[in-house]
Amino acid sequence: MRCKTALALLLAFSSIAQAKELAITFDDAPRSANGFFDGPTRAKTLLAELQRHKIAQVAFFSVSQKLDREGMQRLQAYSDAGHIIANHTHSHPDFNQLSLLEYTDNVDRADELLSDFPTFRKWFRYPYLREGDTQVKRDGMRAYLQENGYLNAYITLNNYDWYIETLFQEAIEKGLHVDMEKLKTFYIDVISAGVDYYDQLAVTHTGRSPKHILLLHEMDITALFVGDLADALRSKGWHIITPEQAYTDEIAGYRTQGVMKYNPGRVGEIARDKGQKSRLWHETLDEGYLRKRFKAEVLEEKESAEF
């Protein structure tokens, strides 16, 4: 009996230790919407998709310059539904192109405009994930975040979902027929491949699967398919957790000593610091690769020739 009990406890502990957990976050909200959906339709569809697929909470990293009347209403709808609103700067600048003061001023402006939302959190995500191309800028921004009570809202699961959206909208604009089921399958396959890759990269360099943060964007394909993506990930053993839970992982306190002009995300930082010099970005983070697959897997042969 004791042996059976010990074995059960060991299996339970092993299951917990190897638990695969991820939170879903959306950048660039409220992102421009003038293609397949308009803004209100995107928001309504996205909120319904999250609710229907039992995704309790996500985080919207918001570019405050987009807060015109419609953008404000869209962000308010997300907040009213209990989702987190967080800071993604005022105008989405590239830190590599600005001074530290210019950059912090941009973050301050967003803080002023976003802090009235009831679900606002002092979380900051760097546009393009670029955290400073010099040590002075990197350390200056780290000090700014600490002094202003901000969490560096890093990501661990990177992808180019925004380019899949570009391909989708381009096809719609050209009047091409997009098979939505094929698009869904393509989208899920590409995002899932990246999730698997970065999780294995984390296991390789940390010995475990951390609480992951998935980077997506507030876009039409997200509104259409994020629930199906969540279900597909669940079928592979993933548990969808809240961003607040995800940011309790111990890698939240990790700080690379390197300076990276282009940042692949927290797992990529760790891998590089452990000595890995290549494949910090998965193969799906390539525009040419995605366009080739989109033409072959989503469009009909005749339309593929026109794309």
From TrEMBL:
<protein>
    <submittedName>
        <fullName>Polysaccharide deacetylase family protein</fullName>
    </submittedName>
</protein>
<dbReference type="Pfam" id="PF01522">
    <property type="entry name" value="Polysacc_deac_1"/>
</dbReference>
<keyword id="KW-0732">Signal</keyword>
<keyword id="KW-0479">Metal-binding</keyword>
<dbReference type="InterPro" id="IPR002509">
    <property type="entry name" value="NODB_dom"/>
</dbReference>
<dbReference type="InterPro" id="IPR011330">
    <property type="entry name" value="Glyco_hydro/deAcase_b/a-brl"/>
</dbReference>
<feature type="domain" description="NodB homology">
    <location>
        <begin position="20"/>
        <end position="241"/>
    </location>
</feature>
<dbReference type="InterPro" id="IPR050248">
    <property type="entry name" value="Polysacc_deacetylase_ArnD"/>
</dbReference>
<feature type="signal peptide">
    <location>
        <begin position="1"/>
        <end position="19"/>
    </location>
</feature>
<keyword id="KW-0378">Hydrolase</keyword>
